[in-house]
Amino acid sequence: MKKKIIVYLDNQTSFFSFDYVSDVFTASKIAEIFHVKRNTISHYLNQLTSEGKLIKVNSRPVFYLSKKTFEEENFKLKKNIYSSFQEILNEKPYFKKERDFFSLMIGHNQSLNRAIDQIKMSLAYPNNGLPVLITGESGTGKSYLVRLVYEYCIENDILKEDAPFITLNCAQYANNPELLTSNLFGYVKGAFTGANETQQGIFESANEGILFLDEVHRLNAEAQEKLFTYLDQHIIYRLGDNSHPLHVNTRLFFATTEDLESNFLTTFIRRIPIQITLPSIKERSRNERIELIYSFFISERHIIQKDISISSQVINLLAGNHFKGNIGELKNCVKVTVAKAFMEQKSEQVVNISIHYLPSYLLRDTEQLVYNIDENKILIKSDTTLQQMIKINQLTQKSVIETFEKVLLIYRENHQDLSICEEEIKKHINKLFDELFFSKQRYSQYELLVYVTQYIRETFRQMRTAYGIQFNGNSVYALSYYLLQRGSTKWYAENDELSEMITHLNQEIKVLYPDSYHYVSRILNICQPLIDLDITLMDYIILTLYFKKIDWKKEQGIPKAIIVAHGYATASSISNVVNRLLEKEIFEAFDMPLETTAKQISEEIIDYCTQNDLSNGLIILVDMGSLKELYQYFPKQIETPIVVVNNVSTPLALSIGENIQKKLSFEEMIEQSVDSAKLDWEIIYPQENRKKVLLTVCQTGIGTAKQINQLLEKSLPVSCDLKIMPYSYESLHVNKKDDTIFSVYDVLGIVGTENPNIENLMYVSLEELISGQDTNRLMDGLSSVMTKEEKDLFNKRIIRSFSLEKVIQSVTILDTDKVIHEIEDFFREIEFLFNLLLGNNVKIALYVHISCLIERLIRNIPIETYSQYDELAQCHQRELSLIKKAFSVIESDYSVNVPNSEVAYVYDIIFKKSDISMIESDF
After folding, report:
1. How far apart are CA 216 and CA 223, in angstroms?
2. Alpha helix (H) ranges present in 98-235?
3. Cβ–Cβ contacts within 10 Å for residue 15, how many?
4. Residue scoring higher pLDDT (808 or 156)
5. Separation of alpha carbons 469 and 426, rounded Å
6. Element at 247 (helix H, strand E)
């Protein structure tokens, strides 16, 4: 009877929820189910509780749960008897890591993180998900990943428990597409000689499950085309029957080791929107490689049934070798090493693995230098787990995480009041840095430590320049050791409550220690792009409290000085020359586009002011613009003297820099510098043989002009002596042929979004390039600089680079053909509802915008705000409603809802562009 009770409660506890506790866990209900007296059942239940097999909750009524099942499904418990369920909940760990089947894959939260996120996105996509193509070298784990995908789908109820998982190796059908067709899609009786009865194919067998086509690159073009119908319509036809389509719901996964461009039809690749690449073992981090090595040694220990002792040199050499066969070759190498040691040590209780048992080629080919001076052996026993090994290998990473969690727990226990617990928190932070300073593990990461330290020194140098702060040597190493470990540690707030608590603590520290917090913020912002650090609020908290104990010493200051000039590198060039001549970083440079206004310049300067110590004043050298205009944008809150000097030049900057070093007063400094900087001038005309140039322009700014420039440059033949460069539309529109560019270059023509209307100069619109209407005119305009062969090649590349299909394909993972068809339906509906004709410029803009819109909605990340929407809706409610109506087909086909903000942006594109015309109506 006791066994029956255990089995019963094991099953019921699997479905237990704190939100609703059923009477199936009570003695009376159990007695009723087993047709036994209640007193008898209560006796057995109390015995099982005493044996530690059940949990007893002394509420009314009393409840009994299986302890083993509860702990497997929830968390570990400290005892067997509780007064209430709330008492049980009080034992729930505050930090509990959520895991799924992908966590079984080493690197799931590091090198494979993006790949797994993409797979989860494909599985969540409506209508049976999106097909996925996995690329990567042989042995990188593609097949294993797809198997985990299947387990993940079962666990998350994406697939039923009995859903099929079928793998087909396409290499078997490389030269026999007919056999592939019959096996994939099935056939009807009489379809070919020997087809004596109707047979279903693999697609049907994989219905409501997963079909994995491995080595898909072995399919020839004909075989790839046979998959189009399913990829497009989710239907198949059995061989010999083209009139009875079969609807199949099969999730498709493909894998290949080959290059996509050279082995697949473009039309095939386009139909597979999710394409992910698994990294080679060389591209994985050292920590991941070590985890793989540990997992293989643990597997070998279970096979030979003997404990294994491994020298640190063996681990180091295996982790440092770049196996061409990737994980598969590493696994075989470990297997061979253990086999060789096992053969020679059969009579020993523990098999010792030293470098002498490694394959000879590994010792010969390795370039790894052994920095690890730790001679301790690594012992793997029968109960050793990979998680235990990882913890040993990542003690310092663990220390960082434990410190994060300890700090937050202390803060929480003290009612989120830092004044009560600050000293206790600081003790744990100081303990962490002591461990980082004296950890032996840093020797195994010597090269990385040198790299990080180099950039921390450079960061501190910049901080010294900006704030005049002196750092001691320990600060460099403290921050280096911390960031070295943080760089390989993934830690995020796991729930809203924890996130809010971290935000509250961060705000408290920011208010209590504003200077230290500001300095730490600047340090982290400078470091982040250099060492690819994923910064969290906990980093600000830990480092601010640690560096708070350091006395931030300031040097005797001099005024800050900046050069602001229009052009791509004008200010940078002047400051670089002057700083080198003065042998000190006096000036910082701000390079501004030609169309930058005085207000925009002032905003840049104000931003600089917030990030630097200006207690000694600020000197601004500008190239042009009204000084009065510049002053009016400075906020009144700036409490430091500011000097603005116009018409900057290298001699003027050099003179001011010298006087800054002399520490003259502002008045003396400027008067002497202006007097010494004499103005000389001379006109130098360009040579007759000017370089030929094709300009790209955009009416809304230089950004799109640069993108057009890049596409044209990619299309330009290498042998052609033509310069393509982005230029200001406004400058050309105002100055025409008087613009400076015509003095410097021989301008052959302009490509862009708006015609600046320059007489006798070729202009080709972006619309013409995308539509392919007038590329011949562009080619004719370039005849003076291109041969016929170069023009033909240029023309072909432009057609390929500027196709609408390419543009849409570059901004969305969706089926390009389907998206274009849906948007064209939208155009027809808009033209009907508004009685107008959309111009090509408007259509092109809508093609790209709506493609992105659909994907945003599918990903559930719409643009949710639109400035002054209420005013727009009040004046144009009818137009907005009709646009919303025109979206109805797209909303239905993609199961999305287009919000008002997105509708408003589409309204802007349709009615704020000039390229529309009303259809004449009958009066």
Report:
1. 10
2. 113-124, 142-155, 177-185, 202-205, 221-225, 228-233
3. 10
4. 156
5. 23
6. strand 246-247
According to DSSP, the residues that pair with 644 across neighbouring strands are 620
Over residues 310-362, the pLDDT tens digits come to: 988 888 888 888 888 999 999 999 999 999 999 999 889 999 998 889 988 77
* pLDDT bucket at 629, cuts 50 / 70 / 90: low
Outline where DSSP puts E strands in 784-883.
836-838
Q: Which residues of 117-133 are buried (b: 16+ CB within 10 A; e: fewer)?
A: ebbebbbebeeebbbbb
- Enter the DSSP assignment of 173: G
267 to 135, 270, 271, 855: CA distances (angstroms): 18, 5, 7, 21
Residue 299 half-sphere exposure toward CB, CA atoms < 13 A? 11
Cα 226 to Cα 177, 257, 267: the distances in Å are 9, 21, 12
- CA 490/CA 287 separation, integer angstroms: 13
CA distance 902 to 884: 9
The Cα 125–Cα 753 span in angstroms is 36
Exposed e or buried b per residue across 791-823, where buried means at least 16 C-beta atoms within 10 angstroms of its C-beta: bebbbebbeebbebeebbbeebbbbbeebbebb
Q: Is residue 267 a contact partner of residue 228, using CB atoms and an 8 Å limit?
A: yes
Query: Cα(874)–Cα(701) distance, rounded to whole angstroms?
Result: 31
DSSP code per residue over 801-820: HT-HHHHHHHH-SS-HHHHH
Total-model pTM: 0.44
**β-strand pairing of 210-214 with 642-645:** unpaired
Q: What is the Cα 836 distance to its own chain's centre? A: 42
Distances (CA, A) of 399 to 389, 430, 432, 495, 918: 15, 12, 7, 22, 69
Query: Confidence band (pLDDT; 50, 70, 90) for 920?
Result: very low
Distance CA 219, CA 264 (A): 9
For residue 226, which of 194, 192, 209, 202 has the smallest C-alpha distance? 202
Note whether 441 and 575 are within 8 A (CB).
Answer: no
Q: Tokens 């009579």 identify what position? A: 347
Q: Is the pLDDT of residue 811 over 60?
A: no
Q: Are residues 5 and 30 in contact, defined by beta-carbon separation less than 8 angstroms?
A: yes
61 preceded by cis ω (within 30°)? yes
Could you tell me if 25 and 65 are in contact, meaning their C-beta atoms sit under 8 angstroms apart?
Answer: yes
123-167 per-position pLDDT tens digit: 988 888 999 999 999 999 999 899 999 988 988 889 998 999 999
Report yes or no: 657 and 561 within 8 Å, Cβ to Cβ. yes
Q: What is the DSSP string of 528-589?
A: HHHHT----HHHHHHHHHHHTTS--EEPPP--EEEEEEESSSHHHHHHHHHHHHHTS--EEE
Cβ-based neighbours of 140, under 8 Å, separated by 6 or more: 278, 279, 280, 281, 326, 327
Query: Encoding tokens for residue 643?
Result: 């000097």
| Nearest C-alpha neighbor of 587 from the set 651, 657, 652, 526 | 657
Beta strands, E only, 388-480: 469-470
Strands 246-247 and 235-236: antiparallel
Helix (H, G, I), strand (E, B) or coil at 255: strand
Q: Which residues of 523-547 are buried (b: 16+ CB within 10 A; e: fewer)?
A: bbebbeeebeeeebbbbbbbbbbbb
Counts of helices then strands in the chain (DSSP H, E): 42, 25
Q: Name 618's Cβ contacts closer than 8 Å, sequence gap at least 6.
A: 559, 560, 561, 562, 609, 640, 641, 642, 643
* Paired sense of beta strands 553-554 and 132-135, if any: unpaired
Long-range contacts (CB closer than 8 Å, 24 or more residues apart) made by 356-365: 357/314, 358/314, 358/317, 358/318, 358/333, 359/333, 362/317, 362/318, 362/321, 362/333, 363/317, 365/321
490 sits in which H/E element:
none
Residue 432 zone, left/alpha/beta (φ > 0; ψ -120 to 50; rest): alpha
Task: Output the CA–CA distances (angstroms, integers) from residue 289 to 281, 302, 322, 338, 730, in the order listed.
Answer: 7, 21, 10, 18, 55
Residue 601 contacts by C-beta under 8 Å, 6 or more apart in sequence?
A: 564, 590, 592, 622, 625, 630
Q: Is the pLDDT of residue 373 over 60?
A: no
